[in-house]
Amino acid sequence: MNIGSIIKKLTSFFLYCIRFYVSKLQLLIPHPKLRSWVFYMLGAKIGTKVRIEDISVANQAHWGFDKLEIGDYSVLTHEARLDLTGDIKIGKKTIIAGSIFTHQDSGSQLFESTTVSRFPRKVAPVIIGDNVYVAAAAIILCDVTIGDNAVVAAGSVVTNDVPADTLVAGAPAKIKKQLN
Ligand SMILES: CC(C)(COP(=O)(O)OP(=O)(O)OC[C@H]1O[C@@H](n2cnc3c(N)ncnc32)[C@H](O)[C@@H]1OP(=O)(O)O)[C@@H](O)C(=O)NCCC(=O)NCCS
C-alpha cells in the first residue's frame, strides 16, 4: 500500500467520523428551534419558525446539511429519518411525523452482487409541497413529489408522485380520497 492510498483511506475515515458525530451530537440540542438554527449553520436552507425535533439524519455530505431545505413554520417531529444522499425539499407549514425519507442503495458502495446490478444505486430528490401532512411511519422513496395540501396516511409507502389535495394510504400508497 503506497502513501497516497493510506492518506486517502485516512481522509475518508476522518470524514466518516465527522459525519457520524455531527449526526449524533445534534440530538443533544435541547430545543427544536435551536436545533433548526444549528441545521441552518450547517448549511441547510431553513425558513422562519421551523421546528426540528430529535430526528435522525444519515449520509449528509461531509459535515454539511446543504441538501436539506425546509419552508417556514414546518415541523419535523420525533424520529423522522432523513437520508441526505440526495436533495430533500420540504415546503411551508408542512408536518413530517416520524416518517422516513430514503434513497436506494442495495450495497453498491460495499460489494458487487447480482442484486446490486439489478437494483443499482438511485439518488433523486424528494420534494414535499406546502401544507402537507406526512403521518407516522410513512416511507417516502426518492424521486417522489408530494403536492400541496396532500396527506400521506400513517404507515404508507410512497413510491410515486402524490397529486395536490389528495389523501393517499397503503403500500404502495394509492389515492383514497380527494380533499377539495
Ligand atoms: C390519514 C388519517 C389522518 C385519516 O384521515 P381521514 O380523513 O379520517 O381518512 P378516512 O378515515 O376517511 O379514510 C379514508 C380511506 O383511507 C383509508 N386509510 C386511512 N388511513 C389509512 C392508513 N393509515 N393506512 C391504510 N389505509 C388508510 C381508510 O381505510 C379509508 O379507506 P376506504 O375509503 O377504502 O374505506 C389517518 O389515517 C392517519 O394516518 N392519521 C395519522 C396518525 C399519526 O400519524 N399520528 C402521529 C403523528 S401526528
Automatic annotation (TrEMBL):
Molecular function, one GO term: O-acyltransferase activity
Entry keywords, A to Z: Acyltransferase, Repeat, Transferase
GO cellular component: cytosol
Entries under SUPFAM superfamilies matching the protein: Trimeric LpxA-like enzymes
Superkingdom per UniProt: Bacteria
Pfam families xref list: Hexapep
PANTHER family given in the database record: ACETYLTRANSFERASE C18B11.09C-RELATED (PTHR23416:SF23), SIALIC ACID SYNTHASE-RELATED (PTHR23416)
Family the UniProt entry places it in: Belongs to the transferase hexapeptide repeat family.
Record protein name field: Acetyltransferase
